[in-house]
Structure formats: structure tokens, C-alpha cells
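Protein in question quoted in full.
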Amino acid sequence: MASSSGTSSGSGSSTIIQSSGSDEDLQALMDERKRKRMISNRESARRSRMRKQKHVDDLMAQVTQLRKENHQIITSVSITTQHYLTVEAENSVLRAQANELSHRLESLNEIISFLNGSHGDDHSFDPELADHSFLNPFNLAYLNQPIMASADTMFHEY
């Protein structure tokens, strides 16, 4: 029995030694896993920072491109507006000239009508017609005048 209890106590101390060795191995294994997880987390954080920086860089490039396009659009709108104003001024001049020519044509038609009507023996003179026609000496002065219309005078009406 003594030998059996000696063997028991010997195996008991061996179990305790194995247990403490196993605890050390377990602790070393847990430390290794913790170290690997820490390295993995650092690498993941580094990749995340790199993705974030790339995203910021892409957004900055997009902002630069959009600003460039915006500037081009503003320039295009400005040029188009200037062309519009130029055409509008030219149209105003042409409208004024057309109006003046229309009045001249109307007056010339009145003269022709008067001359055709008085071509016969009837030399009647209608003073009311003379006040509004070219037969009035005060109206003859503007027959020789050039058509004067400019964009400057036309924009004051609007």
C-alpha cells in the first residue's frame, strides 16, 4: 500500500506539473492569438485608412472636375447672353428701320394715289390730305433724311 500511495502521490504531483504546464501552454497560445488579432486589426485599420484616403482623393478630383465644368458652363452662358444681346440690339435697329420704311412707303403710296387721282382734269386739292402727306412742305424735309436707328436709342423704350 505504501508503494501504491507513493505512486499515487507521485502521479498526483505529475498531474499538477502537467496542469501548470498546460496552463502555461494555454496562456502562451492565448497570447499568440491575441498578438495575431492585434496585428490583424492594425492591418485592417491601415487598409481602412487607405480606402478612406483614396475616397477623399477621388472626391477632391471630382470637385476639381465639377468646378472646371461649372466655369466652362458659366463662360458659355456669358457668351450666349452677349450674343443674345447683340442680336436683340440688331433686331431693334431692324425693327426701327422697317417701321421707318413702312411709313415712307405709305407716304409714297399716298403721293402716287394723289397723283393718279389728280391726273385727270379734276385738280381738286384736299387740305386735310395735304396735312398728312408729302405734299405738305413741312413734311418734305424728312424725305432726304437717312434712316437713323441705333441699338442705344431702342433700349431706352423697354
User: Anything to note?
Assistant: Residues 1-11 have pLDDT under 50 and may be disordered. The first helix runs from residue 2 to 117. Helices lie at 2-117, 127-131, 151-154.
